[in-house]
């Protein structure tokens, strides 16, 4: 990708073929910093506005999930900006799920025994730093930390920020404003006030909080190349490995269960009952400290349509499609948004208006589909993984994938290890389910028929 800046032919309404745009990106998280980098590589003048201070110099970074599972879609987006290898160099491969039952027995279910694909556990802060550092090479990116968007005029591309520490108002304008400001996006809030923008959000009844299994004598306390899961029907715990040989543990439960745990004694009783094998790994003292440090966090799933407003505004990542985190796809889908958007920017004949319009049209079904899949996987992780039927289906899927890899791609593989559109992953699973149920029905009918004919055959023989 050349850094040469193309000549502008834009008329401000996005109605002519494009030259370099002045683009404001709201939110310097993972998707915003990737979008900034991708646009800067194409010669646009990028202004990245981030509410928080620069995480590269901040002493304490507060926020969600310390580590994340990176899969194919995120890797592809990182490869496109030349950062995949740098990120994978420090990531920890997770080859499958390690299930911990209530007695402490462990069972491994590999993600992909046929082609050995795996997820990668990456540090959120590290990934954000890599993306921000890569942006430093581009003089056409200007970073504005501690700028909180509080108003945007979607028709004119005019913005107002509150700048820390005094909350003084700073005004700015841009040809295009891209909201990458997360699940509670201010950009989206402004967009949904306009007619024609559909929006829905769903808080699930479960919250989450993060605990830690520290390293012991400089080593991991559990096998590191797995995503550990403690499925317990109505709730569950998962753990992902970190570079420093600790695990970040995420406990997900209905708020009403969290509410029953108010004292140290209640907490320890609860853990000894449901997660006994994890207690010595976390350590009782640390468990108590981390559990009561912060209240459990809410999880929200957001769908909206369209993702753009005219030729001036667009939302990406969680701002457009926040989802519950149980498919490990929120970030991957947000990064894939960038891949999609850039493929449209690379079509020279499209105007900005057309790019934004096509982005919505190409993306919304798949974004809605992954929000639905993420909800489904919550049930799968906490409940279905324990069931024999789940393991039988997993086994059957694996065999069929091994024999017919281009025809039978299991749902999890298609979501995590391919770039198949999410809606197609669902359609794929539907015909697989239908085929299997037809085969099952036919096999049952055949068995009954054989049984009946054998019975009457025997009867006939003995009669005659
Ligand atoms: C517990 C948990 C575990 C997860 N695990 C995974 C996983 O394993 N794999 C995966 O793919 N995804 C995972 N996700 C989802 C993933 O974290 C998100 O999808 C991803 O962070 C979205 O990136 P984003 O840049 O769109 O939003 P964010 O990461 O939320 O970044 C938004 C940025 O915008 C800034 N901002 C907000 N408001 C303003 C404003 N008004 N003005 C200026 N800046 C603003 C914020 O400070 C922030 O820096 C998980 C999520 C959670 C909660």
From TrEMBL:
Tell me the compartments it is located in: Mitochondrion; Membrane
The reaction(s) catalysed by this protein are: L-kynurenine + NADPH + O2 + H(+) = 3-hydroxy-L-kynurenine + NADP(+) + H2O
Q: Which cofactor does it need?
A: FAD
Its placement in the membrane is given as: Multi-pass membrane protein
What keywords sit in the KW lines?
Answer: FAD, Flavoprotein, Membrane, Mitochondrion, Monooxygenase, NADP, Oxidoreductase, Pyridine nucleotide biosynthesis, Transmembrane, Transmembrane helix
Q: Which residues form a coiled coil?
A: none
Which InterPro entries does the record associate with it? Answer: FAD-bd (IPR002938), FAD/NAD-bd_sf (IPR036188), Kynurenine_monooxygenase (IPR027545)
The similarity annotation says: Belongs to the aromatic-ring hydroxylase family. KMO subfamily.
Quote the protein name from its UniProt record.
Kynurenine 3-monooxygenase
Q: Organism, per UniProt?
A: Bactrocera dorsalis
Q: Which gene encodes it?
A: LOC105228982
């Amino acid at each position: 990708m050349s850094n040469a800046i193309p000549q502008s032919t834009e008329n401000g309404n996005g109605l002519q073929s494009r030259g370099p745009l002045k683009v404001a990106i709201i939110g310097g998280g993972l998707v915003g910093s990737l979008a900034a980098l991708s646009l800067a590589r194409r010669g646009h003048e990028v202004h990245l506005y981030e509410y928080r201070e620069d995480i590269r110099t901040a002493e304490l970074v507060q926020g969600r999930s310390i580590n994340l599972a990176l899969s194919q879609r995120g890797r592809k987006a990182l490869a496109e900006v030349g950062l995949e290898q740098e990120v994978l160099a420090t990531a920890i491969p997770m080859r499958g799920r390690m299930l911990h039952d209530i007695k402490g027995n462990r069972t491994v279910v590999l993600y992909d025994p046929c082609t050995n694909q795996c997820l990668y556990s990456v540090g959120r802060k590290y990934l954000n730093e890599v993306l921000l550092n890569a942006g430093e090479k581009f003089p056409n990116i200007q970073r504005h930390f501690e700028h909180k968007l509080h108003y945007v005029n979607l028709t004119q591309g005019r913005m107002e920020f509150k700048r820390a520490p005094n909350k003084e108002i700073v005004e700015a304008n841009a040809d295009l404003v891209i909201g990458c400001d997360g699940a509670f996006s201010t950009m989206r809030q402004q967009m949904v006030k306009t007619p024609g923008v559909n929006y829905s959000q769903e808080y699930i009844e479960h919250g989450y909080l993060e605990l830690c299994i520290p390293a012991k004598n400089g080593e991991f306390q559990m096998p590191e190349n797995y995503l550990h899961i403690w499925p317990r029907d109505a709730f569950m715990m998962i753990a992902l490995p970190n570079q420093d040989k600790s695990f970040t543990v995420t406990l997900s439960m209905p708020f009403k269960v969290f509410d029953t745990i108010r004292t140290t004694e209640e907490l320890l009783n609860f853990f000894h009952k449901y997660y006994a094998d994890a207690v010595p790994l976390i350590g009782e003292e640390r468990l108590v400290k981390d559990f009561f440090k912060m209240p459990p966090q809410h999880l929200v799933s957001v769908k909206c349509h369209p993702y753009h407003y005219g030729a001036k505004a667009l939302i990406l990542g969680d701002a457009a499609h926040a989802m519950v985190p149980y498919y490990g796809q929120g970030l991957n889908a947000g990064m894939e948004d960038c891949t999609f958007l850039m493929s449209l920017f690379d079509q020279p004949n499209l105007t900005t208006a057309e790019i934004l319009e096509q982005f919505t049209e190409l993306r919304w079904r798949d974004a809605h589909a992954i929000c639905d899949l993420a909800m489904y996987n919550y049930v799968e992780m906490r409940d279905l993984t324990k069931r024999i039927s789940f393991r039988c289906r997993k086994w059957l899927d694996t065999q069929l994938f091994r024999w017919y890899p281009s025809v039978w791609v299991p749902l999890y593989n298609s979501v995590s290890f391919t770039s198949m559109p999410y809606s197609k992953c669902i359609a794929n699973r539907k015909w697989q389910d239908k085929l299997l149920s037809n085969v099952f029905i036919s096999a049952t009918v055949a068995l009954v028929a054989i049984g009946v004919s054998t019975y009457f055959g025997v009867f006939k023989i003995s009669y005659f």
